[in-house]
């Protein structure tokens, strides 16, 4: 069976120079470290402490801090790597509660949905239905748990109970929500496409060349559970030029040169209610996606371009500076704490050895050898040449 490959136009992969590789690694380190700092300092506050009193405000606080971190990614893509993100189709309104479905071309599709969410001020409220292995990633996986992403094993008999339980917690219309899922269930490859086409031919379904047949159970359950609190469904179709990137291609700016996103807003009244009808509706939507991607490959763009504007460079810079400041400040604070722990350990060791003696406020009270403050440190010991010599030795080891 035929598998349609993207056409190669004048665009080429940029070479992976040492400078681009270093820049990609540095950017990833900054993003991982800021994610870790957000997790340590604000994740527990938002997801645990405030949640004891209000789930609504817990989500708002968590979304505020993580939204600022998520905004660093579009800054990397569009401003540092100069990737051109082109939106087409409809201009969707800001502030809606939506279910977002997209085709799955590569491992970075979900990151580019942040570019759309950022333009609508919803980058902190976007949640994903994603495979469970991603929830086990260090740092990122922990953040996914705090952000209430829904993990699936991609086996409906295993996933249904947990998925419906998680969806039931997202029904409050006061909480902003962008719930994103990829009905294909996996990213597109030629081998997967051939298997999908074979299954479609054997079961009388549309034979698609640019997308896989969607798995309908997860979408149907999401729509059923949330229909009463949603405003619309957004149907997003993503195409890349010159080709689909890997994660490191994306981070280092080698590929893609352009990301095209076609967005269509579908009112809930236009979507049927029964599971069988929703299944047929979803199949038809992916048939339309296949046609859109066919036109994209032949023409190099989706219809009705220009539905969204460019990101503000000033806002991106301010957010980046704020993120860098938080990272620098928290790193400095942790360094100071670590150094103070080292000084305290040395003082306690010398006291245990009987080389220095602290001061007690009364007989039988604990002796105090040191008090450490933000800007000053006070050390207490006997006024003798011997103990002053030991103090000099402590400070020498500390330095």
From TrEMBL:
Highest taxon, organism lineage: Eukaryota
Catalytic activity: a 1-acyl-sn-glycero-3-phosphate + an acyl-CoA = a 1,2-diacyl-sn-glycero-3-phosphate + CoA
Listed GO MF terms: 1-acylglycerol-3-phosphate O-acyltransferase activity
Cellular compartments per GO CC: endomembrane system
UniProt cross-references to Pfam families, sorted A to Z: Acyltransf_C, Acyltransferase
Enzyme Commission number, as recorded: 2.3.1.51
Keywords: Acyltransferase, Membrane, Transferase, Transmembrane, Transmembrane helix
Enzyme class at the top of the EC tree: transferase
Transmembrane intervals: 21-50
Domain Phospholipid/glycerol acyltransferase: 98-220
A Gene Ontology biological process term: CDP-diacylglycerol biosynthetic process
Signal sequence residues: none
InterPro entries xref list: Acyltransf_C, Plipid/glycerol_acylTrfase
Pathway(s) where this gene product acts: Phospholipid metabolism; CDP-diacylglycerol biosynthesis; CDP-diacylglycerol from sn-glycerol 3-phosphate: step 2/3; Lipid metabolism
Family to which this protein belongs: Belongs to the 1-acyl-sn-glycerol-3-phosphate acyltransferase family.
PANTHER family in alphabetical order: 1-ACYL-SN-GLYCEROL-3-PHOSPHATE ACYLTRANSFERASE 5-RELATED, 1-ACYLGLYCEROL-3-PHOSPHATE ACYLTRANSFERASE-RELATED
Name of this protein: 1-acylglycerol-3-phosphate O-acyltransferase
